[in-house]
Every structure is written in structure tokens, then in C-alpha cells.
Amino acid sequence: MTAYRHTQVSALNLVLLGIPAAVCFYVAATISPQWGTWLALGGGLVFIALGILFYSLTIEVDAKTIRLHFGTGIIRKSWAIADCVSACHVKTALWEGWGIRLTRRGWLYNVAIPDAIMIRFTNRVAVQLGTDEPDALLAALAEVGVARHESM
Predict the structure, then answer these.
(1) Positive or negative, the Cα torsion across 131, 1, 127, 143?
(2) In whole angstroms, what is the distance from residue 95 CA to residue 127 CA?
(3) N or C end of the chain: which has fewer CB within 10 A?
(4) What is the CATH code for 2-8+59-148?
(5) For the chain, domain boundaries
(6) Sheet holding 126-130, edge to edge
(7) Using CB atoms within 10 A of its CB, is residue 105 exposed (0-12), middle (13-18) or buried (19+)?
């Protein structure tokens, strides 16, 4: 039984990756055939691939596992509930970025700012899961036995 499942879609990521992809494709279409055409086309394809990989973040919580995956599911991660010590609501900063990042508070997995849930584990590692439903995710974690700690 899944206690929680939510997908957060980031329209901003699609725009921020779509604009440079469109510019690259425009440049590739308008310059005379040469190595620059292929470079621009390749750049556009990289931006499209990043958009497909990071347009959304899905988080699932059940009695045994916390799982997440980005976009189409190629990039995924999971943690055992038994290893979780506590969780709290935190705010991420713009400079911490989007995607997968190592921050001052541990690994961050997000597609938007500012809300995230920081989970501490028995091995003293912490991760932050970006969400636009922090209260619902915290409630689901509490339902499966993860204690709350004070926000940072």
C-alpha cells in the first residue's frame, strides 16, 4: 500500500531548457552547412534531453520505502524507511539550484524551489526532497513511522 504518491511538474524547467534548445535549432537551421550546424544541433538535443529527464519529480512513500524518480524514470533513487530517523520541512535557496545537488545540508533532489523535506538517516546522512506538498509528505512519513524534527 502506498501512503503517498505525488508528481511535481516544473513548467519553469521546461521553459528554461526549451528556450536555449529553440535557439540552438534556429541557429542550426539558418547557418550554412558546416561544423557549427552540427554543434548547434547537438546543443539543442542536449537541452531537449535535459528537459525530458528533469521536467518532473515523483515521490512515493510506502511502509518500507521512500522512492523518487525524475521525468521519465531513468533517474531514480530509493531509501528504506527503517533507515530514516526523522524529517522536517526546509526551504532551499535559489543558488542551490534544481536537479540533483550536494548542498550544505546533504543531497538535494528537486525540480523547483523553495520547499523541501529533509530526511535524516541512521548513518547521519541527510537528503532533501523537493516538493510542492510539504505538509502532505511530512504526514505520509509520520504515518509510516518517521519522526518529525524541528525545521532548520
Answers:
(1) positive
(2) 17
(3) N
(4) 2.30.29
(5) 2-8+59-148, 9-53
(6) 99-103, 106-110, 126-130, 115-121, 84-91, 147-148
(7) middle
What's the one-letter identity of residue 20?
Answer: P
Tell which residue, 105, 112, 104, has the closest CA to residue 126.
105
- pTM over 0.85? The answer is yes
> What is the tens place of the pLDDT at every residue in 20-32?
999 998 888 888 7
Give yes or no for a contact between 67 and 12, defined as CB atoms under 8 angstroms apart. Answer: no
User: If you search the block for the grid coordinates 518529525, which residue do you land on?
Assistant: 148
pLDDT in tens, 71-121: 999 999 999 999 999 999 999 998 998 899 999 999 999 999 999 999 999
